[in-house]
Pectinesterase
Amino acid sequence: YKTVSEGVAKLNPKKKSVQMVFVRPGVYHEQVLISPLASPLVLQGYTCDAKNYASNQVTIGCGRFSRDRPICTRKSAPPVTITQAKSQKDIPASVTDGAARNDMTSTVRFKSDNVKVYNLNIANTVGNGGQSLTVSVNATDYGFYACNPTGYQDTVLADKGRELDAKTYIIGATDFVFGRYAQAWFESCDIETIGAGYITASGREAANSSATYVFNRARVFGKSGVNSTSLGRPWRQYAKVIWQNSELGDVVKPEG
């Protein structure tokens, strides 16, 4: 198939055993929707090193993207990237629900449970142009391994269920890890800030909610300037984010 969406469209929604989409090296200019499936799903991007996002060969999105170049030394292998450029202003005014409008901007929209994603670069290239998601997860039991979601505002929406992000490189400036109901663990992730703002925006809505973001052994760095970034802000009254065992660069304000 020529696009990731074409491959996803061929998945059998009634099949119970694991299904896989293997993505060959390239830059894929598109939005991808993962609709509900009865089976677990694996999305695997071609890579030179499955444990290192720097070796990824797949990029998904559209618009101009500075990573449209090889990362590995393998000849004729561009990065595997899914990329596109869509923000709230591109969503029809007839869509009035804020959550739906946000989701519709996302480069990859996940609606199915039990999904594992390996070695994919995913980008929304709008930049500083308002809410513009890169990854939107509205399901449960997710794993992102050695991936690289890139955006500016609202890069990663972890909104429902359980999620693990491991050895993943997340780029953004404002509220770029956010959501209301998810239990998300970020293990050994690199977090790069490219503009002054907040890394997380937790929308936990009740004191007895299990919704929590945990960053363990993270590395925070960036180009936003010294003391320019906060680890998070409360989107709702009961916001809950834990940072532990992590390396916080000088971009992080002393108070966190």
User: Anything to note?
Assistant: The longest helix spans residues 98-104.
